[in-house]
Write a structure and sequence with these properties.
- This protein is an alpha+beta fold and 666 residues long.
- It contains 23 helices and 22 strands.
- β6 and β7 form a beta hairpin.
- α15 runs antiparallel to α16 and α19 runs parallel beside α20.
- The longest helix is centred in the middle third of the chain and has 54 residues.
């Protein structure tokens, strides 16, 4: 609640009688002066505050108890008090003093004040009371100064207006309140394709608004002119605009209204969004491609994990099937065991392909048989092809020379071509056919300096590829597939890989037949004849029973299987279910070589190798590591450090014996 202080001398001021008339009118004066929109104070003969209205207390932020009875110099500060001293003589003569100007007030800073000082009851040259009425005109003075500065600025900038308007990068179009163009800068002329002279005086709707939107524009102008809702005023809005040639394009518009005297003008600032929208579309396409890539990466990691877990049971199935077939060599049921082995081996190839695709690794070029890559790709995609009703023909040239290439990268190209053909064939209702063929490209007279080339062709009888798109399909992110089916990266990446290998990937014309597409991959041959799998060198009879081997694997069935495979070949085998047990056995017995799993709990293969290297240095060079994923970065790094051989699961008995034979060579 606001306290009200009636007009009377402060008790501490020692003011005498102000006169019977003044005393009688004090209550009325107090109420009147409280209602005055000015600061009013009463100063006694000793220059102390005797009374002040609420305007004064609100301005100073002081409580009456902090002001009343206090010397004015203490409250208003030395600068303002010096101004009071300057008019003291005039007050002493009974004159009313009026002044206006800037002064420094304690607690309020520099203010522009207009004051009237009225002396009351002057006795012996000293007013018994002085009434001071003050108006703070600081804000008004500042506005006047700002307005004056603005006027000066506008006057100075008027000369620059034409230059700024004419050289603005944005298109600026001004109209009167009827919607007719009164200003049209060069940027607008360039944007809309119409000269300024042709635009002036015409309706803005006719100049730049598509016909289908003109009715809405006219209705909006009428609504705003009538004082209705301003829906676009002062807001950035995107809208279609019209060029002089009749083409539409997107713009961003900011519209504002300006009142000059009694006239109203509307000015629009416009930016052409064509390039921005094209860039945004490209960014969105790339973002979608990145999302697809991340999804494929995650799927690849999942497949790699699943494939790794499948390797152990596949190794057991393959190994047991091989041992069973060997034990039943004279039994007709041996063929059944061999079929189990073949099926498990096929699963192993598929798993290995998954791992090769999912794991990134440094390029490793070696002699690669294209026929094997083609067969493996068709094998891996066999279920998908069959489930889509696609008849696949393998037409592989026997004795095809190998190529010097990274098997995984070229394998990905082959897989991509087959998957593309399978997706293209989905547009055909029946009779879906695909042919995967290989051969050697004959050299013409102009090719004598070029190495012979091996080719692999994937042909389908789908809808084919339009002639005008045959080069565009190799552009990154370009795809003819429906949304959600492809990313537009497969062929671009495949061609890049082919060219890195000195080869080429092209789409060929189909002559005759029932149409379709034909993609051909060509790679230079390595210069060496293609060879089949190298048969392992069997141990000499004198060595078979002399070697003692330690098998270390935390999965008992794997350890037992390896033990049986090696024991059947005449080796003396002992098994350990962990790295710790293996170290204990090495301390008690002599072994000629160690076959160890790479990934084990407690002491894994890498730790075991380091312990063996410290305790039995010679034996550390005769360790073979068996693992389900030799492509993982950690495995690659360790095997490179240890310079030890490795065998990927699942493996055959022949592969295992071949590695052991090589390991025991002096």
């Amino acid at each position: 609640m606001t306290e009200t202080f009636h007009l009377h001398p402060a008790p501490s001021a020692g003011v005498g009688d102000l006169g019977s008339v003044l005393q009688a009118t004090l209550p009325l004066l107090s109420q009147l002066l409280e209602a005055v929109p000015a600061r009013v104070v009463v100063i006694d003969a000793e220059e102390r505050f005797a009374w002040a209205n609420q305007e004064f207390f609100a301005f100073t932020g002081l409580h009456p108890k902090q002001v009343l009875g206090q010397p004015i110099a203490r409250i208003i500060g030395p600068s303002a008090y010096a101004g009071y001293n300057a008019v003291r003589e005039r007050l002493a003569s009974g004159q009313t003093v009026a002044w206006e100007g800037w002064t420094e007030l304690a607690g309020a800073g520099r203010r522009y004040m207009r004051e009237h000082l009225v002396p009351v009851d002057v006795r012996g040259g000293t007013p018994q009371s002085t009434v001071v009425m003050s108006l703070d005109l600081t804000e008004l003075k500042q506005r006047d100064a700002a307005l004056s500065a603005k006027v000066a600025e506008l006057q100075a900038s008027e000369a620059l207006k034409s230059s700024i308007f004419d050289n603005a990068m944005a298109a600026l179009v001004s109209t009167d309140e009827t919607g007719h163009v009164v200003e049209f800068n060069p940027a607008a002329a360039a944007m809309f394709g119409i000269a300024r002279e042709q635009a002036l005086g015409r309706s803005v709707a006719e100049v730049m608004i598509p016909p289908r939107l003109r009715a809405a524009h006219e209705a909006g102008m009428a609504r705003v002119t009538a004082g209705g809702e301003q829906r676009v005023m002062g807001r950035r809005v995107e809208m279609p605009a019209l060029r002089a040639d009749g083409t539409e394009f997107p713009v961003e518009m900011l519209l504002w209204r300006t009142a000059v005297a009694d006239q109203t003008f509307y000015t629009a600032s416009l930016f052409d969004l064509s390039e921005r929208q094209a860039a945004q579309s490209e960014i969105e396409r790339q973002r979608e491609a990145l999302r697809q890539s991340e999804k494929l990466t995650a799927m690849g990691s999942l497949l790699a994990g699943v494939a790794h877990e499948l390797n152990n049971p596949l190794s057991i199935v393959m190994g047991r099937a091989a041992l069973l077939a060997e034990k039943m060599s004279d039994d007709p049921r041996a063929a059944d065991a061999q079929r189990i082995f073949d099926a498990a081996e096929r699963c192993g190839r598929i798993v290995r392909t998954f791992l090769n695709m999912a794991r990134s690794r440094p390029a490793n070029r070696s002699e690669v048989a294209m026929n094997d890559l083609a067969a493996a790709a068709v094998d891996m995609l066999g279920y998908v092809l069959r489930s889509h009703g696609i008849a696949v023909t393998l037409d592989l040239l026997p004795g095809l020379p190998p190529v010097k290439a990274d098997a995984d990268q070229i394998g990905q190209i082959v897989l991509n071509l087959i998957v593309n053909a399978q997706q293209a064939l989905s547009a055909r209702d029946h009779g879906r056919r695909m042919t995967v063929s290989t051969g050697v490209a004959p050299m013409t007279d102009g090719d004598r300096r070029r190495a012979p080339r091996v080719w692999l062709r994937v042909r389908d009888n789908g809808p084919g590829i339009a002639a005008e798109l045959r080069e565009r399909i190799f552009e990154p992110f370009f795809t003819t597939k429906s949304e959600g089916v492809g990313t537009g990266l497969g062929l671009a990446v495949s061609r890049s890989i082919a060219r890195e290998h000195g080869g080429e990937l092209t789409v060929q014309d189909e002559v005759g037949g029932d149409g379709g597409a034909s993609f051909c991959l060509q790679l230079p041959v390595s210069g060496e004849p293609e060879g089949g799998e190298t048969e392992p060198v069997p141990l000499a009879a004198s060595d078979e029973c002399s070697a003692r081997l330690l098998v270390v694997d935390d999965e008992a069935e794997i350890a037992e299987l390896i033990g049986e495979m090696l024991g059947g070949a005449g080796y003396e085998v002992m098994t350990a279910e962990s790295g710790a047990v293996a170290l204990a056995m090495l301390a008690e017995a002599r072994f000629d070589a160690i076959v160890s799993d790479l990934h084990m709990p407690d002491i894994d293969g890498a730790q075991l190798w380091r312990e063996v290297k410290n305790r039995h240095p010679a034996l550390a060079r005769r360790m073979l590591f068996v693992t389900g994923d030799t492509l993982s970065p950690i495995a690659r790094q360790f095997l490179s450090e240890a310079r030890c051989d490795s065998l990927s699961k699942p493996f055959s008995r022949q592969e295992l014996l071949g590695r052991i034979t090589a390991l025991l060579q002096p």
